[in-house]
Amino acid sequence: MSANAKQSFLCGLIGSGIQASRTPPMHEREGDEQGVRYMYKKIDTEILGLTVDDLPELLTAAERMGFCGLNITFPFKQAVIPLLDELSDDARALNAVNTVVLREGRRIGYNTDCSGFGESFRRGLPDAKRDVVVQLGAGGAGAAVAHAALQQGVGKLYVRDSDPVRAETLAASLCDAFGAGRAAACTDLAAAMDEADGLIHATPTGMAKFPGMPLPAELLQSRHWVAEIVYFPLETELLRVAAAKGCRTLNGGGMAVFQAVDAFRHFTGLEPDAERMLRHFASMGA
């Protein structure tokens, strides 16, 4: 679709500790390439001294200032839901929103984390054995990734979380959506990894501000593949250790790009160039 040069879009990202996010430059560069005026602002609640309680005020302010869309990240992906007028099927199933379109006085919530991880996995590990997979993390991003994994043909998903109730709740919702026995809360990580073909990591561990490993290194075997959602740094300690053991790995960059591709489409109605956005992401370095 060709774009009128007079079109302009004001978008933003609401989250805590988001100064290192590559989402703003990805969106703005694609806007430039499309020939539109595109401004994407970081609304960092950590710097602003705001909490979840301030989210209603932030959404109202964005509407008043003419924002056409907002991406939502940690820790607001579930807290934003009661503030919206409408949810996409994915967002409703996941009970998590990372993309809000503001249009004609209405707030419409989407989840592009799910489609973003699904496309990254499809491209990056197309022939990976996926009969049994362990996933670490059952939060907002974890729910999206788990749905995508089952959509991509994972036979059984063991879900582990620091909050066992959250893992059990997600596993139950996955069984409701995909069929009995497709998911279960993981109570014995070592046993699950012995059975698993691969590992999906969906917690903040490994980010610059949360360094370290999300599981004991000795549980990784060369036959495992490892898919990461953290993308800053692009090579986490988990991926370094896994690669050293001979595991196939998938970094979080693809999910970051493809969720942005889908969000750009929702915000603008324009068709983004995914390959161009991948190249731009790669040019930003590790």
TrEMBL record:
Keyword vocabulary terms for this entry: Amino-acid biosynthesis, Aromatic amino acid biosynthesis, NADP, Oxidoreductase
Claim: NADP is one of the keywords in the record: yes
Catalytic reaction equation(s): shikimate + NADP(+) = 3-dehydroshikimate + NADPH + H(+)
InterPro entries linked: Aminoacid_DH-like_N_sf, NAD(P)-bd_dom_sf, Shikimate_DH-bd_N, Shikimate_DH_fam
Any one cellular-component term (Gene Ontology): cytosol
UniProt domain Shikimate dehydrogenase substrate binding N-terminal: residue ranges: 13-100
Positions with a binding annotation for NADP(+): D89, G137, A138, G139, G140, A141, I229, G252
GO BP annotations, alphabetical order: amino acid biosynthetic process; aromatic amino acid family biosynthetic process; chorismate biosynthetic process; shikimate metabolic process
Active site residues of this protein: K77
The protein's Enzyme Commission number: 1.1.1.25
GO molecular function list: NADP binding; shikimate 3-dehydrogenase (NADP+) activity
Residues at which shikimate binds: S21, R22, T23, T73, N98, D113, Y231, Q259
Keyword Thylakoid: no
UniProt pathway: Aromatic compound metabolism; 3,4-dihydroxybenzoate biosynthesis; 3-dehydroquinate from D-quinate (NAD(+) route); Metabolic intermediate biosynthesis; chorismate biosynthesis; chorismate from D-erythrose 4-phosphate and phosphoenolpyruvate: step 4/7
Function field: Involved in the biosynthesis of the chorismate, which leads to the biosynthesis of aromatic amino acids. Catalyzes the reversible NADPH linked reduction of 3-dehydroshikimate (DHSA) to yield shikimate (SA).
Subunit structure of this chain's protein: Homodimer.
Record-stated family: Belongs to the shikimate dehydrogenase family.
Name assigned to this protein: Shikimate dehydrogenase (NADP(+))
Gene source species: Aromatoleum tolulyticum
Lineage: Bacteria, Pseudomonadati, Pseudomonadota, Betaproteobacteria, Rhodocyclales
